[in-house]
């Protein structure tokens, strides 16, 4: 990522992983980096980031319900906060498409369209199949200054408060969700080198993708 469209000063680096499973000759081994125009293309392109929450003060209220043995309302409140956070993320993505980036200003979608993600662009999140490394949240949170709105990361890179959602925005017309899946030792070692991370540490975070 660069500080501006001149692409002369690096702001930060977002690290991605590429699928390594053997595929048919007409199918690609994808990485999220494929959905951003490379520097030498001459195309000004962007990666968006977001962090939203509906959990501020929620844990304290849930605790009061639990102390009163009111499990029903405790569970209901946690579920409601989770759904509100997801809805907030969906709303912000819609505003990116229609307003902030404006590449789909006339977009009109039904609820079914939203559920089936029939719109241009994706919003994958660190720790999920397309970018399974939770430690990439650190860069995202630093660039967004997420703690300024009350969202922080634990030592295990879980978000707090609960009912928080974060991730990336990609606008490429062919962008799609995918599962990185199993990776080899060669990519693990290259990834650790690029992140300046100890291989053992990278192995710990990517264990599910290594079959460990």
Structure commentary:
By secondary structure, the protein is mainly alpha-helical. The chain has helices at residues 58-67, 71-100, 111-115, 137-144, 185-195, 199-205, 207-210, and strands at residues 48-53, 152-153, 159-160, 164-169. The strands form two sheets. A two-stranded antiparallel sheet has the order 1-4. Helix 5 (185-195) crosses helix 6. The radius of gyration is 19 Å and the shape is globular.
**Sequence of secondary-structure elements:** EHHHHEEEHHH
State the separation between the terminal residues, measured CA to CA: 32 Å
Structural shape = globular
Supply the CATH superfamily name of the domain at 46-181. Vitamin B12-dependent methionine synthase, activation domain
Average pLDDT confidence is 96
By CATH reckoning, the class of the domain at 46-181 would read Alpha Beta
Number of strands: 4
Q: Give me the oligomer status.
A: single chain
Structural class: mainly alpha
The helix content is 25-40%
